[in-house]
Design goal:
single chain; alpha/beta; 4-stranded mixed sheet; 4-stranded parallel sheet; globular; hydrolase; D-aminoacyl-tRNA deacylase activity; metal ion binding; Deacylase_DtdA_archaea; metal-binding
Length: 221
């Protein structure tokens, strides 16, 4: 365990380790109580840390494990949403990392029971990381920031997802970015999952054309 005085989003030097788990606050305008999990990186501007148009190294398995821990253990926290978020903000490290977050307002951040629950999720998730069975490893495309379709899919299927590019970043997506999503996943990516209704037809057609050129299998969800 290590602590830093600066914002986690702007961290540049990482310890030599297999995985960094950022226990962090999540904020949103809605203020909805939530537990969220996501990979770091920027598809375009680096408004909140990291480098522009650069993704951090992610672990699809870690994303799934901590998401499942939140969902399976949240007795007493029924008012909290559990969700994956799309890839966003810094830092953009070469060490695989995952954000495990408590949100979304000061009220939740000061809730000691909720904070302890996040700590328990991290500790129990760490114990599970090396005991995970065979999972299909994916990257995701489409939908909004909170990725409900990807969240439901991962929780129901033997699947883990690393980076997710949302519809509002689609104008910045190209073949190089898709290849970076694959390359910046520590596991071997097998499939691209497409939130079919979360993209316009012209966006889907452009995406599928790029995936076919790259040679990555794709599936609509």
């Amino acid at each position: 365990m290590f602590a830093v005085s600066e914002s986690l989003l702007y961290l540049e030097d990482a310890p030599d380790t297999d995985l960094i788990i950022f226990a962090s606050r999540h904020s949103s305008e809605s203020g909805k109580p939530s537990f969220t999990v996501h990979a770091p990186g920027n598809f375009h501007l680096a408004e909140f840390g990291g480098r522009p148009s650069t993704l951090g190294m992610a672990s699809a398995v870690a994303n799934r494990v901590f998401l499942a821990e939140f969902q399976g253990r949240k007795v007493g926290f029924d008012e909290f949403d559990v969700s994956l978020e799309v890839t966003h903000h810094g830092p953009t490290l070469e060490t695989p990392s995952v954000f495990v977050e408590l949100g979304s307002s000061q009220q939740e951040w000061e809730n000691l029971d909720a904070a302890k629950f996040v700590a328990d999720v991290i500790i129990n998730g760490m114990r599970r990381l090396e005991k995970v069975g065979d999972l299909e490893i994916a990257v995701g495309f489409g939908g909004g920031h909170y990725a409900p379709k990807f969240t439901r899919y991962v929780l129901k299927k033997a699947c883990a997802i690393s980076h997710i590019c949302p519809n509002y970043q689609f104008q910045h997506l190209n073949k190089d970015t898709i290849c970076e999503m694959i390359r910046k996943t520590v596991e071997d990516v097998e499939v691209a999952l497409i939130d079919w209704k979360g993209l316009r037809k012209m966006e889907r057609d452009r995406l599928i054309g790029m995936l076919d050129e790259i040679g990555l299998e794709w599936r609509r969800i």
